[in-house]
Design a protein that fits this description.
alpha/beta, six-stranded mixed beta sheet, 20 strands, 19% helix, 20% strand
Length: 451
């Protein structure tokens, strides 16, 4: 067991609306959507047409740049619509689900009897290969590469994050099977990071064939990118893979049952969620399926993921492939007279002690999407460094991305980060700059120029 890694920098966002630890409903979906936008850098190739029947596990699109990487339907049913945007860009493949689900049979396989080639083939054929995310850049893993190591974060410190111990308590055997299989794909082992405060009580500390680590401290201690930085930083020319606990469970089900089964428990959270709790569903579910959790949808923002890094999908949007959380917030579009000049507002949280929220550290707040100000000139200060527990110069990296200076982007750590690692920097930014978008643009430039 490694020593605990304690992170002092960071910030926990005290937002109300945490999901109660109970499963409120099992949802039988009506329409689900497979979205290319869930996968960074993907150039999709459509494999089905409207009116075609599919099973759960039937490939519906492929990566044009690597056509052995397939993306499967999470349900059986009929392809009812192929949604395209400008220049016929593929946006969504919508599938009407059957009342009784049928699965492609990929066959039960024992990881102990497979070599690396056999594991890779099973994941590619089933459509579960996209569960593996490659760093640098956060793209789908390249099956031709043998990574330095594979990293898993067994907990999340994001605002109102789903509790893995509750959501995956019946998936231990599946997760173990997935770890046994993925160990065949790397020489550096499977590094699993746990919350130091709950390590001894979580059933997942009994997982075998892993290299365990424990982390403590505020968010983003649960971010896998932060954990990699403190365990084995990514240098130029190195490659690591990451996979979430949710995807480990899906991979394990593939080997143990022969089915492409991506069903999961997700947390419905946020200040505007009515009686927030968990539901059992599949990725690609419409936000309309969660209608009993909210009212007045026109005044709400629906986020697939957490409030800091999730995607605003709207009331007609769909749950992302990797997400196990939905956050419902009030749209903060009201004008606020005098703004920051009213320090006695007890209903507002301030990370900089502008208000007196620091006197009530256990209070949670009914937060909305109001920026409390508008974008302005870049302020050079150490405010980012206080919430980013990585040995980087965040201001310099952001400026290098803005300038498109690849040499400086490499120098200041572009290989180690994804936009999610800068979410808190964006939250505390006094200039209201969209830092995650800047990092995303920097990564896109690196993919274009360094390919």
């Amino acid at each position: 067991m490694s020593n605990n890694i304690y992170l002092k920098k960071g910030l926990n966002i005290p937002i109300e609306g945490k999901a109660a630890l109970n499963t409120r409903k099992v949802i039988a979906p009506d329409i689900i959507a497979v979205k290319p936008s869930d996968f960074r850098g993907l150039v999709p190739k459509l494999l089905v047409k409207e009116g075609e029947k599919v099973l759960a596990g039937t490939p519906v699109m492929a990566d044009k740049m690597a056509q052995d990487i397939l993306f499967a339907s999470p349900v059986s049913g009929e392809v009812v619509e192929v949604v395209r945007g400008e220049k016929r860009k593929l946006l969504e493949i919508r599938i009407k689900a059957d009342s009784t689900q049928e699965y492609v049979d990929f066959g039960v396989k024992k990881p102990s009897e497979l070599n690396a080639e056999g594991v890779t083939k099973a994941l590619l054929e089933s459509g579960l290969w996209p569960a593996l995310v490659q760093r640098p850049y956060g793209i789908i893993a390249n099956p031709q590469i043998r990574p330095k190591a594979i990293f898993v974060s067994a907990f999340s410190t994001a605002p109102l994050a789903a509790d893995n111990e509750f959501a995956l308590r019946d998936e231990f055997a599946d997760i173990q099977a997935a770890i046994n299989a993925l160990n065949k794909l790397t020489d550096g082992g499977i590094h699993v990071s746990f919350d130091a405060g709950t390590y001894s009580g979580t059933p997942f500390h009994k997982l075998e064939n892993i290299i365990p680590h424990t982390f403590s401290g505020p968010h983003p201690a649960g971010n896998v990118g932060v954990q990699i930085h403190h365990i084995s930083p990514i240098r130029k020319g190195e490659t690591v893979w990451t996979v979430s606990m949710v995807m480990l469970a899906a991979i394990g089900k593939l080997f143990r049952t022969g089915k492409y089964d991506v069903r999961r428990k997700i947390a419905i959270t946020g200040p505007r969620a009515v009686d927030p709790a968990y539901v059992s569903c599949v990725p690609g579910m419409s936000m309309k399926e969660f209608s009993w959790f909210y009212s007045e949808p026109e005044k709400l923002r629906f986020i697939s993921g957490d409030a800091l890094t999730g995607t605003s999908v709207g009331k007609d949007g769909f749950l992302g492939f990797y997400d196990n959380q939905v956050t419902i917030l009030k749209e903060g579009n009201e004008y606020e007279m005098f703004g920051w000049a009213k320090p006695f507002r007890t209903s507002q949280f301030s990370s900089s002690r502008t208000y007196f929220s620091w006197l009530t550290p256990k209070k949670v707040y009914d937060m909305d999407t109001n920026l409390h100000g508008g974008p302005r000139a870049f302020v050079v200060s150490d405010v980012y460094g206080k919430v980013l527990p990585m040995h980087l110069y965040p201001v310099y990296l952001v400026k290098a991305c803005l300038a498109g200076d690849i040499e400086k982007m490499e120098k200041y750590g572009i290989y180690e980060v994804l936009p999610e690692d800068f979410a808190l920097c964006e939250y505390v930014c006094p200039s209201k700059i969209n830092i995650q978008s800047i990092i995303e643009d920097g990564i896109s430039l690196m993919l274009k120029e360094m390919a």
